[in-house]
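Record 1 of the preview.
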Amino acid sequence: MDLITQAKQSAAYQAIDNHVKNGQALGIGSGSTIVFAINRLAERVQEENLNVVCVPTSFQSKQLLTEKGLAVSDLERTPSLDVAIDGADEVDKDLNLIKGGGAACTQEKIVASCAKYFVVIADHRKDSKLLGEQWKKGVPIEVIPMGYVPVIRAIEKKLGGKAELRMGANKAGPVVTDNGNFILDWKFDETKDWKKVNMEISMIPGVVETGLFIDMAQRAYFGMPDGSVTFREKLSRNGTPECDESEK
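->
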């Protein structure tokens, strides 16, 4: 196992061990690091006879959960979640995120918003002081297919930078999300007021959702090259960490 893979696994295992308890409803994200989280969750369910139900954020995570024999639900049956665990493309010093490299940002954001506590898992390369410091592929934006050109024009006019339609790597034509939409990648040229930017993009007709997760995560775990794990957590107004009830 190479060092990056080891780092992803270490972060995922620690998050699952620290935050998953019997009887919980869990949001399970998407991406390469989540694979390790699902593996560890399956181990704990079998070893400890845990009774948990999982709401996946994508076809990928639903398929992995099903393959591991874990109980799968959805937000119609399980609209309130105890903990959501997901990866990120980049995490800044304030726990703001860029997500959507795997084209699942809309469902990921919906699931995270339904959780009492949102945990991010990543390797050390995703840890930044400012968004855009490490991640150079831009902010993913899910759009209605018929509106992608007007959305590109509006983003570039309002915010500058360059927005491009994401093309498929192993197929002809653009990437299509689980919702049947397209993904734009907006490469920005300077540090922004991300809360304001997220709102401005979201208001453009044709935009479904952005990959900016602002003020949503409570804790982020980062796997390091030596196998250790560091974490950063959001502080409440009185300066104390926001509490995950499952850790009590």
